Amino acid sequence: MHLFFPARLRIGLAALAVFALAACETDKRPPPPCPDIVIVKDASDLTLFREGPGRDLTDVVLEAQIVEFRGFCETDLDDDTGTGEVVVEMELILSATRGPANTTRDGSMRYFVAIADSEENILAREEFDTAVAFEGNRNRVAFLEELTQTIPLKRGELGDAYNIFIGFQLSDDQLRYNLQKRGR
After folding, report:
1. CA 13/CA 11 separation, integer angstroms
2. Across residues 92-121, what is the average pLDDT?
């Protein structure tokens, strides 16, 4: 059975289809940009030594690395004021290795997340503690840390007006050790 539509109806249906497709196209705007997330190279590694002056391999209690991150952001802007916020959901992937001087089969570390403007002025900074257990005969583990950062947006701003820096909270000695390892 064939359906017959008058020419006027066919033109009307075709116009309706074009408008529907056009409406779909306008809703397909690219999402607003997210902040850049940067793992600070000089603070991406942590080596903890046992108490005392020794600094060779046998004195290592724990070595840890911020390996990478995954994440996404959502921007919520008020149409009237143009202000809003960007919410960044992140998963940090860390690894830890038990050193020869580790007698407890566990360890702890502290890392930071800092929010900066496009000129790298730090606007907010928070530190987080995390612990790791080396169960059974494991001497190396990898694990996730889930974080949410909310950044308020002024009128006309989007997420790309900000940077997020991540690294281990290091003492001066730990930073010097990292720089020496890298030959700097």
Report:
1. 5
2. 96
